[in-house]
Amino acid sequence: MTGPLGRLRVVELAGIGPGPFAGMLLADMGADVVRVTRPGDTPLIDTAVADPLLRGRTTVQADLKTPEGRDAVIALAADADVLLEGFRPGVLERLGLGPGVLHEANPRLVLGRMTGYGQEGPLADTPGHDINYIAIAGVLDGFRRRGERPMPPLNLVADFGGGGMLLVVGVLAAVLHARATGTGQVVDAAMTDGAALLATMQHGFFAGGAWEPEPGTNALDGGAHFYDVYETSDERFMAVGAVEPQFYAELLALLELPAADHPQWDRDRWPALREAFAALFRTRTQAQWTALFDGTQACVTPVLGMFDAHRHPHHVARESFVTDSGAVVPAPAPRFSATPSGVRAARTADLDEVRGRWAGVAA
Fold it and tell me: pTM for this one?
């Protein structure tokens, strides 16, 4: 199970959140990822199982504040394709590991830099977390009902979607360029930039007059009755996403509601229609509604608990979850027909072993 990136060598300077997620994605796809930690480094949150974000890596230790540690990283970078780091802007340079130094050792190296606000700008040196990044990106304000306060969508939008995932996209694009030209470069992946980019469709709708600036009043943000979440009689929930007219028509038919009394795109009636849907969904259990909509085109599904979703028959059939180090976690994605990804166990090694494995191997 080598994956499509079986010939890619990556140095990952240990961090939290989006950096490790990017390393995990690359490792799942077959890259040889070497994670460099400081001696005595401890996890931010201690748990009873190994952190699944660290799967598939070889971990080595090096104190980057010492000449020996600095030289060890430079030596690894000299034989690598990619180096990932998530320090605040300027920290890598102060450690003597800035782009100039690394590219002198390896002109083809791709340096992926993961930050919240980017390598420059008024907020570049300001600390923050996902909630801060999506707040100034204009995205957090969209996660709320009309008249209610914004609700953080876990830390998925900036950390993982707009951060680690886009870092991987940028790094792989830069690797293609480096292999074609022999020239590496810096990938400046800022979570604020990435979070804003994820909302490109909404910006387009707004510019075209199809999106109201007030959150909770639009078709995809809880304003419409045909795209919302409804409570069931057993205090669970069903997700309704009948956007296209043919799906909405099937939804009404299964709910035994007359189409003439439930116009889909009459915005003035959306609040009243949502209340009518809410009252109807409260008359049956989640299991009963699931049975009714199973196999239909109405785009209605049960809302599953995050840690129960792996039991759903669809996930079971596709093996969408795996057990890794005692934890049930999502399987690698996407899927490749010729070079399938796989979950490999994390392990520790010393620097000499890795340098011996990498030294002299053509990139």
Answer: 0.94
